[in-house]
């Protein structure tokens, strides 16, 4: 099997030749790894054994003048400061109370998302790898940025219809941009990959009832969109969100990434037992306690073997770290040991 065939088997509920491997990385770690291995980007992905590749559209909206200290501006006009994408510098909808105010907001135009290079990006791999596509669609995070996190919870009770309208308008942008991406190149994609972090270290960021009322309408729209284009849909979600998994599975989600075993309720054996027959599980090899703090590559190999022994039976598993953005402080040799161990112990 090649990578594309291997991943397709996992999502169809069949046993592949071996467990597929996933290597998500921060730019800082990736640059460090290239220096240490003297490999270029594609050579390093091949060395890692990564079965996935990803293609990206580009938002080309109006130029924005960044405020002092700002490092980035989202399509929704939220300027951020700090490391990476940073933290929002303002919450412009924090005082909104009416749908009319939401409608007057200057919403981004999905037509400004450039999808013209998607086919060229995907064609490079000639159907060899499983290609991730579509918009990342972090609608939950964008609404938090617009309203403020704590403030959003209050408004869910005080102005629920307005909040639902904000979610709908934010999701409209990602939905329509993904339609354009799929119309351009869905035949060259294998998975619609979306991301919203719904869990914290101690559990979900909201109860099931609130999740069903405010988050699931957007989630269902995106899942159905992927299925309309014959693509399985995989959700990236950090933290402990076990309580929300039944809702996501009922909504039709096909894969859940990246399982964080040190968060409440995310024990790999328990997740495999309860959900392994219903959804693809991706991750579960602890980025912090195994990869960063691992005492040696040999120890990382053994700890990875233990996770594989739990997650491998019955298929529907993709091996990888518990965080999609492997951090710069992670030893390169530990990541290589993890990826090699998935290969070594992952055959069916």
Task: Describe the fold and architecture.
The protein has 348 residues and is α/β, with parallel strands linked by helices. The protein has a single domain (3-345), classed as TIM Barrel (Alpha-Beta Barrel). It is 45% helix and 14% strand. The protein has helices spanning 3-11, 27-37, 41-48, 99-104, 118-123, 139-147, 149-158, 160-185, 208-228, 245-250, 268-275, 287-292, 297-311, 332-345; strands spanning 52-54, 58-59, 72-73, 79-81, 87-88, 113-114, 130-133, 191-195, 199-200, 203-204, 233-236, 255-259, 280-285, 317-321. The chain has a seven-stranded parallel beta sheet with strand order 1-7-8-11-12-13-14. Strands 3-4-5 form a three-stranded antiparallel beta sheet, with no helix packed on it. Helix 6 packs across helix 7, helix 6 crosses helix 8 and helix 7 (149-158) crosses helix 8 (160-185). The longest helix is centred in the middle third of the chain and has 26 residues, at 160-185. The two termini are 12 Å apart.
Tally the structural domains. Answer: 1
Extended strand count: 14
> Which CATH class applies here?
Alpha Beta
| Shape assignment | globular
Strand content of the residues, in percent? 5-15%
Largest sheet: 7 strands, parallel
SSE sequence, one letter per element: HHHEEEEEHEHEHHHEEEHEHEHEHHEH
CATH architecture: Alpha-Beta Barrel
Termini Cα gap: 12 Å
Rounded radius of gyration (Å):
20 Å
Oligomer: single chain
As residue ranges, the low-confidence spans are none
* Strand arrangement in the largest pleated sheet: 1-7-8-11-12-13-14
Tally of contiguous helical segments:
14
CATH topology: TIM Barrel
The helix content, as a percent range, equals 40-55%
């Amino acid at each position: 099997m090649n990578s594309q065939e291997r991943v397709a088997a996992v999502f169809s509920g069949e046993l592949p030749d071996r467990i597929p491997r996933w290597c998500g990385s921060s730019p800082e770690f990736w640059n460090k790894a290239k220096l240490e291995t003297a490999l270029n980007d594609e050579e390093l992905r091949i060395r890692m054994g990564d079965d996935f590749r990803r293609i990206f559209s580009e938002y080309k909206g109006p130029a924005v003048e960044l405020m002092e200290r700002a490092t980035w501006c989202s399509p929704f006009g939220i300027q951020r400061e700090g490391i990476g994408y940073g933290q929002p510098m303002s919450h412009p909808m924090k005082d909104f109370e009416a749908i009319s105010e939401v409608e007057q907001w200057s919403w981004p135009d999905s037509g400004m998302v450039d999808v013209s290079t998607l086919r060229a990006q995907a064609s490079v791999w000639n159907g060899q790898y499983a290609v991730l596509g579509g918009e990342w669609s972090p609608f939950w995070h964008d609404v938090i940025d617009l309203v403020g996190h704590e403030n959003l919870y209050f408004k869910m009770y005080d102005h629920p219809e307005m909040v639902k309208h904000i979610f709908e308008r934010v999701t409209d942008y990602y939905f329509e941009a993904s339609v354009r991406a799929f119309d351009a190149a869905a035949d060259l994609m294998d998975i619609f990959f979306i991301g919203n972090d719904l869990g914290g270290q101690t559990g979900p960021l909201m109860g099931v009832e609130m999740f069903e009322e405010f988050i699931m309408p957007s989630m269902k729209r995106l899942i159905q969109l992927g299925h309309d284009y014959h693509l399985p849909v995989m959700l990236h979600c950090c933290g402990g969100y076990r309580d929300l998994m039944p809702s996501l599975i009922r909504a039709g989600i096909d894969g859940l990434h990246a399982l964080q075993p040190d968060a409440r309720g995310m024990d790999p054996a328990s997740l495999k037992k309860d959900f392994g027959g219903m959804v693809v599980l991706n991750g579960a090899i602890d980025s912090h306690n195994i990869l960063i703090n691992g005492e040696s590559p040999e120890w990382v190999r053994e700890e990875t073997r233990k996770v594989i022994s739990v997650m491998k039976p019955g298929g529907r598993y993709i091996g990888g770290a518990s965080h999609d953005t492997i951090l710069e402080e992670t030893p390169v040799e530990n990541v290589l040991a993890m990826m090699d161990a998935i290969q070594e112990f992952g055959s069916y």
